[in-house]
């Protein structure tokens, strides 16, 4: 008997193999509609062992957005002036990634090079960032999380009004049709980004050495655990994930997604 969504998972792993990714120590399982997939170790892995690797070209981030063959020119023109006053350059990088993800999921879905990856993303997210603001205020009343979640939601709404509705859809409606680039779509892309974006050293803003968040197919199937003894190695266009701890067969394959 097949596991849930096994056909999609088989297509995804075939896509990875076809793009020279490697995941021999890992087993993938479907964990639920709002969680998606997770990974476990299928054979003992010694400390210093490689958990997986993939070409950097499979990453979906600001570089991929700016160099996109169909929307890259428009996204490259999106600057700080298109964001709410007081925004940071980091917010621009995150926004570019989210817009590119939504375009690939809705507009270019049938031809997207990431379509096998996007098919595995949850269709909905159950977190404070996706709840209505009234529900956030009610369920998180009196907690530090309440104001933080509301602040992030309000920032997302301002970015949508300025960068998406007010700039991209207004100036390029053929590329960013308003019926596809709507608040619900951007909320989904925002939640997908924040649930799995990884800080990849050496792939910083505009060629800097700092870590910038990317969506990293294969690697982001592994769930987040603070303090997980894993690290990235990036060389010759390949991203490798190394475990600095011995991992027994059957144990969860976990990584640290980064500070944020």
Write a concise keyword list for the protein shown above.
single chain, 260 residues, alpha+beta, three-stranded antiparallel beta sheet, 8 helices, globular
Q: In percent terms, what proportion of residues is strand? A: 15-25%
Q: Taking all residues together, what is the mean pLDDT? A: 90
**Strand ordering within the main sheet:** 3-8-7
Q: Largest sheet, described in full?
A: 3 strands, antiparallel
Order of helices and strands: HEEEHHHHHHHEEEEEE
What does the overall shape look like? Answer: globular
Question: Uncertain regions: pLDDT < 50 for 5+ in a row?
Answer: 205-209
> How many strand segments?
9
How many individual helices?
8
Strand-pairing-aware structural class: alpha+beta
Radius of gyration equals 19 Å
Helix content: 25-40%
Measured between the Cα atoms of the first and last residue, the distance is: 39 Å
């Amino acid at each position: 008997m097949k596991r849930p969504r096994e056909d999609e998972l088989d297509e995804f792993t075939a896509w990875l193999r076809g793009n020279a990714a490697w995941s021999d120590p890992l087993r993938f399982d479907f964990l639920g509609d709002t969680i998606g997939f997770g990974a476990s170790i299928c054979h003992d892995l010694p400390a210093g062992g490689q958990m997986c690797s993939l070409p950097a070209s499979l990453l979906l981030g600001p570089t991929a957005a700016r160099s996109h063959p169909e929307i890259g020119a428009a996204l490259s023109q999106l600057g700080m002036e298109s964001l709410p006053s007081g925004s940071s350059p980091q917010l621009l990088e995150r926004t570019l990634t989210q817009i590119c993800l939504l375009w690939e999921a809705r507009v270019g879905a049938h031809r997207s090079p990431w379509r096998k990856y996007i098919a595995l993303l949850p269709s909905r997210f159950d977190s404070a960032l996706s709840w209505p603001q009234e529900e956030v205020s009610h369920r998180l009343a009196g907690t530090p999380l309440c104001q933080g979640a509301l602040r992030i939601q309000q920032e997302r709404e301002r970015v949508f009004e300025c960068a998406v509705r007010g700039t991209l859809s207004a100036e390029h409606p053929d590329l960013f049709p308003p019926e596809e680039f709507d608040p619900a779509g951007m909320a989904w892309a925002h939640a997908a980004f924040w649930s799995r974006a990884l800080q990849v050293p050496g792939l910083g803003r505009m060629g800097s050495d700092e870590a910038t968040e990317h969506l990293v197919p294969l690697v982001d199937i592994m769930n987040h655990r603070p303090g997980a003894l894993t690290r990235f190695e990036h060389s010759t266009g390949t991203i490798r994930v190394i475990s600095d701890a011995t991992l027994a067969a059957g144990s969860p394959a976990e990584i640290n997604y980064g500070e944020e």
